[in-house]
């Protein structure tokens, strides 16, 4: 059986992408879950695909569920639509939106069709990873709840002693003649003792 290989780009940075291999008989719900796994996102939010063209314009929608809005053309449902049935051109593109509040957007492009599947791989499968994935919930999600405690423990808004608001050292009137960070008491360099 043929295997479809899709490159899934993060919309904000096309150097961040995941390559996902999937059977054409598997459905868009399988592809949806594979994308979330590839980017380490949870599966708690709404999602939708749009069939697209070379200009990344939205076409027919393929939804996780039928949402309450009016449609010119009724959407297809992910669980009832095989990926292969929506391939119209050799480099078929889809737009994938996840979590309509955060509005994560990914560009999905067919980059290869393999003749045979690999018996060692369970499809769908992430077969290549490039770039650091964005954190789904920001820094807190990346570092955990303990990071918040660190922020509260140290008041980072106050300036440290000896530093200005911009983080540069304040100028001081101390002289450093001995090389140890302090001026020798009672020693002042006269004009005849100029440094060479």
Question: Any overview of this molecule?
Answer:
The structure is a single chain. This protein has a single domain, classed as MM3350-like (Structural Genomics Hypothetical 15.5 Kd Protein In mrcA-pckA Intergenic Region, Chain A). It is 13% helix and 28% strand. An 8-stranded mixed sheet has the order 5-4-3-6-7-1-2-8, with helices on one face. The longest helix is centred in the first third of the chain and has 11 residues.
What brief labels describe this structure?
single chain; alpha+beta; Structural Genomics Hypothetical 15.5 Kd Protein In mrcA-pckA Intergenic Region, Chain A; eight-stranded mixed sheet; about 15% helix
Overall strand count: 8
Spatial strand order of the main sheet: 5-4-3-6-7-1-2-8
Determine the mean pLDDT: 80
List low-pLDDT spans: 140-154, 172-177, 181-195
Helix content: 10-25%
CATH architecture: Roll
Please tally the helical runs, counting DSSP H or I stretches of 4 or more residues.
Answer: 3
Largest sheet: 8 strands, mixed
CATH class: Alpha Beta
* Class by SSE composition: alpha+beta
- Choose one word for the global shape: globular
- What is the number of independent domains? 1
- The radius of gyration is 29 Å
CATH fold title: Structural Genomics Hypothetical 15.5 Kd Protein In mrcA-pckA Intergenic Region, Chain A
Distance between the termini: 82 Å
CATH superfamily: MM3350-like
Compressed to H and E, one letter per element, the order equals EEHEEEEEEHH
How large is the share of residues in beta strands? Answer: 25-35%
């Amino acid at each position: 059986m043929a295997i479809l290989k899709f490159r899934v780009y993060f919309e904000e940075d096309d150097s961040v992408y995941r390559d996902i291999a999937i059977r054409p008989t598997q459905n868009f719900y399988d592809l949806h879950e594979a994308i979330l796994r590839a980017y380490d996102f949870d599966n708690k939010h709404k999602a939708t695909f749009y069939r697209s063209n070379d200009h990344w314009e939205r076409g027919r929608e393929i939804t996780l569920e039928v949402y309450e809005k009016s449609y010119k053309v009724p959407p297809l449902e992910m669980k009832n639509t095989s990926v292969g049935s929506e391939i119209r051109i050799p480099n078929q593109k889809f737009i994938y939106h996840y979590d309509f509040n955060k509005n994560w957007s990914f560009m999905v492009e067919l980059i290869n069709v393999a003749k045979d599947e690999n018996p060692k791989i369970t499809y769908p499968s992430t077969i290549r990873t490039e770039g650091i994935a964005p954190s789904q919930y920001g820094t807190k999600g990346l570092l955990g709840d303990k990071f918040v405690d660190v922020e509260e423990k140290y008041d980072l808004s106050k300036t440290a002693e000896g530093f200005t608001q911009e983080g540069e050292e304040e100028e001081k009137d101390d002289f450093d003649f001995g090389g140890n960070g302090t001026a020798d008491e009672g020693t002042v360099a006269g004009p005849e003792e100029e440094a060479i």
